[in-house]
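Researcher: We're teaching a course module on how sequence relates to structure. For the next exercise, students receive a sequence and then see the predicted structure as tokens, so they can try to spot secondary structure elements on their own. Here is the exercise chain.
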Amino acid sequence: MSPEKSAQPQLPPIDAIDAPTLGSCYENWFEYPVKVQPHHTDYAGVVWHGRYINWMEEARVECLRSIGMEFADLVALGCDLSVVGLSIKYHRSLRLGVSAIVKTRLEVSGVRMNWNYAIVSPDQQELYVTAQVTLVPLDKERGKIMRQLPSNFQEALTRITTIYNE
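Model: And here is the predicted structure for the students to work with:
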């Protein structure tokens, strides 16, 4: 067998992975601080990949709370927020004992809510994760996507986009 046919495919070098430059691109986003605890990690002290999704949900709930919308109030309206899309890119691992900031902001298109995320170091010099979660409101009673958001929830979303997307 010739050497050309037996050669193993090569992965691109690590520095070929495109990471957005931080700078000011995450200014005016809602910020939710986290600290890596032992139960967030594997045996090597590296954050388990699913933990980032938990932190993003916590940040989303706290962002809503920051403008006066409790998630329980939304549920009481008969509305649930169902995830219809999730895209996540892991740029760098977080390790035990490290602090980070989960930054989020919202873009609304009809009834679709696209929550964008960046998990960064407190000094914003390190980028750990970028992600987007797309949610749609679900009528809990009928089990169908709502064609229109409840008015007070729509007002809350408008406040969030005004505050954090400037």
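Model: If you want an answer key for the exercise: DSSP finds four helices and six strands in the chain. The chain has one domain: 25-164.
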